[in-house]
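Please go through the protein record below and see whether the fold suits the sequence. Record follows.
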Amino acid sequence: MERERNKMKITIIGAGNAGSACAFMAAEAGHKVTLLKTSNRITHDDHFEAMVKNKGIYCVDNTKQGQFTDSADDAEKTFQPLELITRDPKEAIVGADVVMVFIQTTYHPALAARIAKYFQDDQLVILVPGYAGSLFYSKYCPNNPIFAEGESTPNDARVVEPGTVKVLFKNARNALSFFPATRQVEGMAIASRLFPAYDIGIESARKHIFDSALHNPNIIVHTIGLYVMYPMLEYCAKHHPDEVPYMYRDALSTKMAWLMIEKLDAEKMAVQSALGCKAIPYLQACLFRNEEDLNQDPRAVFESYKISSPPGPYSFDNRYVTEDVPMGLALLSSLGEKFGIDMPECNRLIEMCGGILARDFFTEGRTLAALGLDELSKDELLTYITSNELPIKTLIA
């Protein structure tokens, strides 16, 4: 009876690693799941077509046997049928209780213009990750859904062959924020029925969407990890082309990386405090997401994950930089500037990563100016993300 009560209609947008894994997990939990692919001939098309043919998705869930790595000794492959697998946004979104968006945040503005008109009153729309992307969808939505943003995906997964996803790890907890923040109680009541990782109590919700954005672990570990890894990639490409370094094992084992992490984390927490949020260190937030036992040493837990991490990334021109620097670090820098906080480590990292790729991530970035909010005062900005009320007519760029 409890399982029947908690069944919902779930639409997953994005047929990549995270979207595929969450579609399987939601179907396995008894929800009626629709999978929507919004891109065409970009990535995962063979995977999508295999799911259409099979009318569902295969999964190798290594967490079922206590494995959290991409090991050769995999769990048994199992199958979950899906209600609908489509490229039609209206067909997928209308009538869903929950819509989960798993796409690169750089594509939020364009996707919002295409699909937000289909969101419905009181529908829960979760962006994972968000980086304040709710503001774009809100602009194009004539109705009144509840927007939520996650700071990380509920799982770590990889599409291993067309039609099959492998789940390597599941988070113990995933905190959400809501836009407007005044709808937090409504949103948590729905989200708690979705995955166990979201059923963590209202006290664990983030204060608002900027809080979630700054708690995204990728804003620190991806950006610094790949920046420190850059000379390793260059060296291997020149002298050992058949080898590739490991970001977690190699780059994030250096003293340089951890000195940078400490400085960037301090700047992040200063901005969180200015935003009225609880300043939580990066490692402590990782422990909260990943472990049931919160009495463990956070650094020791992080080090244990590094041992079994996969190789790569294989290039510096990777979403770890091209997404997390302009969408995450640029937003952090912009918020720091608004609240009068010096951000030397953040700004230096943005400039250096952009310099390597010959791109201006400050201009490309998701800043308050890009969101159309740079003219608001500090108090007006906080009022807006809390209650969706603006003192003047402000449009999202």
